[in-house]
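Input sequence (337 aa), recorded before submission:
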Amino acid sequence: MGENMRAVDIKNGKGPVDALFMNADTPKPQPKSSDALVKVKAFGLNRMDLLQREGKYPVPPQAPKTLGVEFSGTIESLGKDAERGFKVGDKVFGLAYGGAYAEYVAVSTHMLIHKPEHLSWEQAAGIPETWITATQALWLVGEFKPGKSVLFHAGASSVSIAGIQLARQDRASAIYVTAGSKEKIDFCVNELGATAGFNYHEQDWSKEILKVTQGKGVDLIIDFVGQNYFQGNLDAAARDGRVVNLGALSGTKLPAGVDIGAFVYKRLRYEGSSLRSRDPEYQGKLRDTLEDHALPKFADGTFKILIDQVFPWEKIIDAHKLMESNKTKGKIICTVY
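Predicted structure, token format:
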């Protein structure tokens, strides 16, 4: 018999927030030869966790049933084929296919980064999924270049918070956001440096984008909403623009009457992407990009890791309820220590 550990579990495998519970009889993961076993200190919440909890997320086949993809902690053991440069006891943070809502997580060493001393466990746990997703969306998929303009939907979400900072550092000509409150828009503009923001409850954001760009539109749109924003994205995109779709919070089925003519006359590219389903080699390249380009900016204060609230992991139900409220500006983190 193998060892057990505590982990957050879901009654009956899926359900509402109140189905979450602490399972002290969860089998401790057995790492593969290229993996590390990490004793978790903190983990970050992501929107996919809510969808997975409800049985609405396509979990990769290699993922354990336990929720959670980003974490910080210390290496307890290493497989014989683990990546060089890591040793038992190292403080690390990283990205897993799943299993981070637990005392221990098994993860490929390709997706681990050494934790600098200036970052707390909570800050480190809030980096991997959001900053790597933003990096992927901007450059690998969106082909962002200095001088281009960009629009982030869900402007106060963690991925957009990272993306706004990355785009500013890479000299975007303009950075626009949409959000559901004046407070969130003011936060994006005044604290993060976005050019302008539009309240989707009160404004037709696609028309406002065309107004402020004198009819040109934006070069790159990062979207998490899907169905409800599809037509607006086509209308607001500039000629030769790119739309990167990372989610479908409003649904996936388009209504009748959607006009796709912009694909031709604007020469648009509309591309979906995900991070969790990528192979370790692809994720490893993104990790290296983050390590080379972002970590020094965390150290000198150029990039900020914004945490909305920290919960002890025993309060996981409260943490999920907060994420469901859509009132946060930044990461929700749970501590395991």
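Checked by second reader. The chain is about 30% helix and 25% strand.
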